[in-house]
């Protein structure tokens, strides 16, 4: 029974995605056509079209799956243990010092190789 419901909703998914594509196209063409109008009005129209297109896209199977993915990602981000400010500063300083040391080593090796090649070539 579940697969039949998914099939019937996915039958209209192509039509829904076509509507989303048309809304985006109307936004792009309309923005170009009404380029002489106020930027505020054009932005408000584009935001309204984007909201409608997003709503239509969320009615599809892929759109629902994407919404679920976003909800699960938000839950996972809340589980992350973020570093404290002192840890962040300490780690940043370590990375900057390491990069400087490695860059000096590479500069020294490059200078040595350039000096050897110049001496070899003459």
Notes on the protein architecture:
The chain has 122 residues and is mainly alpha-helical. It has 2 domains: 1-80; 82-122. The protein has 5 helices and no strands. The chain crosses the membrane at residues 15-34, 40-61, 88-109. Essential subunit of the Sec protein translocation channel SecYEG. Clamps together the 2 halves of SecY. May contact the channel plug during translocation.
Radius of gyration: 28 Å
Mean pLDDT: 91
Structural class: mainly alpha
* Helix content bin: over 70%
Largest sheet: none
Report the β-strand fraction as a percent range: under 5%
Q: What best-fitting shape do the alpha-carbon axes yield?
A: elongated
Q: List low-confidence stretches.
A: none
Order of helices and strands: HHHHH
Distance between the termini: 84 Å
Number of spatially distinct domains: 2
Tally of DSSP helical segments = 5
Strand segment count: 0
Function: Essential subunit of the Sec protein translocation channel SecYEG. Clamps together the 2 halves of SecY. May contact the channel plug during translocation.
Subcellular location: Membrane
GO molecular function, one term: protein transmembrane transporter activity
Family: Belongs to the SecE/SEC61-gamma family.
